[in-house]
Amino acid sequence: MLSKTIAAALNSQVQMEAESSQAYLAMASWADIQPGLQGVCAFFYKQSDEERVHMLKLIAFINERGGFGVVPPLEQPILTFKSLRSAFSEFLKHELKVSNSINDIVHLALSEKDYATHNFLQWYVTEQMEEERLARVLNEKLELIGEDKSGLYLFDRDIMAYRGPEGKGGGGGGRH
C-alpha cells in the first residue's frame, strides 16, 4: 500500500510526464511547419509518445499499489521557438527537471522504506540517464553546427540515429 505522501509524489510525476508529452508534441508541431525539419518533427513526436507511456506506467503502478492515479489538467506548453537550438535547449531543461523530480521521489521512497516504489523507480532513473545524455549530445551537435545550413540538414537527416542502440527512434507524424 502506498503512503499518501508517496502517492502524491507519484501523481505529481504523472503530471510532469504528461506535461513533457505535451511539450514535445508542441515541439513536433512547430518543427513540422519549419522547412526541412521532418526528422526533428518525427523525433519529437516519438518523444511525446514515450512520455505518455511513462505517464501510463506510473498511473498503473499507483493503482496497483492501492493509490489512485490522477489524470492531471495541463497548461498550454510553449508553442513556438526562436530557433532549433532554442527548442533543443528547452528539451534539455525539461529532461533535467524530470530527472530531479524522479530523484526526489526515489529519496522519499527510501526515507519511507517503500522498497517496492524504490524498485519501480529504478527504470525511470535509468531512462532519465539516457534521456539526459541524448539531450546533451543533440545540444552539443547543434552548438557545433551553428547556423550552417548543410550541418542542419545533416542533423535533421541523422537525428533518429541518436535514439540509441535499442532502436528507440522512428515513428511520429509529420509531413514526408
Description:
The protein is mainly α. It has a single domain (4-163), classed as Ferritin, core subunit, four-helix bundle (Ferritin, Up-down Bundle), CATH 1.20.1260. 71% of the residues lie in helices and 0% in strands. It has helices at residues 4-32, 38-64, 84-111, 115-145, 149-158. Helix 1 runs antiparallel to helix 2, helix 1 (4-32) packs antiparallel against helix 3 (84-111) and helix 3 packs antiparallel against helix 4 (115-145). It is elongated and about 55 Å long.
Quick rundown:
One of its GO terms (cellular component) is cytoplasm. The protein is mainly alpha-helical and 176 residues long.
Describe how the helices and strands are arranged.
Layout: H1 4-32, H2 38-64, H3 84-111, H4 115-145, H5 149-158
Helix pairs in contact: 1-2, 1-3, 3-4
Question: DSSP strand (E) fraction?
Answer: under 5%
**Number of domains as seen in the coordinates:** 1
CATH-assigned fold name: Ferritin
Rg value: 17 Å
**Under the CATH scheme, which class?**
Mainly Alpha
Tell me roughly what share of residues is in helical segments. over 70%
What's the total helix number?
5
Strands, count: 0
Mean pLDDT over the full residue set = 92
Distance between the termini: 48 Å
Main location: cytoplasm
GO molecular function: ferric iron binding; ferrous iron binding; identical protein binding; oxidoreductase activity
Protein name: Ferritin
Family: Belongs to the ferritin family. Prokaryotic subfamily.
